[in-house]
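Q: What would this chain look like folded?
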Amino acid sequence: MDTSPADAKATILAWDLPTRIFKWTLVALVVSAWVSNKWGVATPSWHVWNGIVLLIAVVFRVLWGLFGGSTARFRGFVASPARGLGYALALLKGREGHFLGHNPLGGWMVVALLALLALQGVTGLYSADEDRLIIEGPLAKTVGDATITFAAHWHHRLFDLLKIAVVLHVAAVIFHAVVKKERLVPAMVTGAKPARPYEDAAVATPGSIVTALACLAASVAIVLGAVKLLGGW
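A: My prediction, written as structure tokens:
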């Protein structure tokens, strides 16, 4: 639908509240993970619990991707490789369409970030410093030294990959803001995007707050229960 000057500033819902809270909570957790690793030697439990909460957030996002609002569901934004390539080619030509939720490339970035964070969190559970005097994951005591060394190595390497993915993600947001004049950050704060034709949906259907709370409770139970079941604490 075309917007006339009178309704040029009209907006519609793009991201529901639970999705937005997750987004900014995840940003805070990633920053906190880096800070606690670099300057949190005096409080090693900070880094350990940061990782556990991050895993809870990732599990929540997976559940929310199944039961959440329309733009948060994986089936709504995880495109086929062919569609992703088609969008990339259209983007290079300046002919890409507009999406209420994630565009095909953005959708795969979400999947990549969640996968990296999940692996980062799991390897952290089994990681420890060389002498196990400063920091030790809650499951490190259940495995041998070789496994701990392997997990610690990949825990650090995965964070390097995560930093690259974050830089690419931020660069894409800046590109859309500067070149395409799409203000994605304000949309993730307010939940609203300009009213215009979109390729994926005309309007978003928000997820239920009750469902979000149920997904959160299930995420806490899954992560803490799994750590306990596997011998942690």
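The longest strand covers residues 11-13.
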